[in-house]
Write a structure and sequence with these properties.
There is one protein chain. This protein is an alpha+beta fold. It has 2 domains: 42 residues, no CATH class; 38 residues. Helix content is 34%, strand content 20%. The protein has 3 helices and 3 strands, in the order βββααα. Strands 1-2-3 form a 3-stranded antiparallel β-sheet, with no helix packed on it. Strand 1 and strand 2 form a beta hairpin. The longest helix is centred in the middle third of the chain and has 12 residues.
Amino acid sequence: MKCKYCLSDHTVSDGYRINKKNNTKVKKFYCKDCKKYFSEQYEKKYTEEFKNKVIDCHNSRMSTRDIAKIFNISPSTVLYWVKKNFPALKIH
């Protein structure tokens, strides 16, 4: 299995972990090159489409707090996504 961080093939199986969501076993791996652990399956919590909707709301001058309430996410998450997509933007 390729490492999801450095794409190296130098990985070894490292047992299992229990998935909190549905109590199933998920295989763990260890990368010998970057020394990180990762799982066989990884689900993103938010889709890119969802993130883009949040960013569009921010671009239409909606407040961070209002966006967070509407989408039921943390205001810091909104700011993180905006900063990640617009690194030159200064947000205080």
